[in-house]
Specification:
By secondary structure, the protein is of the alpha+beta class. The protein is built from three helices and five strands. The chain has helices at 2-17, 53-62, 106-113, and strands spanning 28-34, 37-43, 47-48, 84-92, 95-103. A five-stranded antiparallel sheet has the order 3-2-1-4-5. The protein is elongated. The N and C termini lie far apart (66 Å).
Amino acid sequence: MIRTMIGLAAVCAVGAGAASPASAVVPSELTLTYQAKAVDLTCDPAGGDHPHARQACTVLRGIGGDPKRLKSGDSFCFLLYAPVTARLKGTWRGRSVTWERTYGNSCEMARATGVLFRF
């Protein structure tokens, strides 16, 4: 009886220590562009040539990799019409992501997207 319990405990311990494939975080690879500027951003781990990669990845994690869920900041912008189109394309944790939005000017884009398009 004791041998059986020890054997079961060992099996449970080995099974509990094994990582399931579903719990593994899939790396994300994105390209962000606006005007003639473009950067690559990788998350999990944070990297690429985005100057604020760690913060950008934190923002994306908070919105599930969906830029449509971004919350705009509260800074003031001049009412100057100089349209800027922000684009994000790639994969977020294995899921294809394509997003594009045109803002009235670069200030409005910065207010709406925060650190994501600060490059």
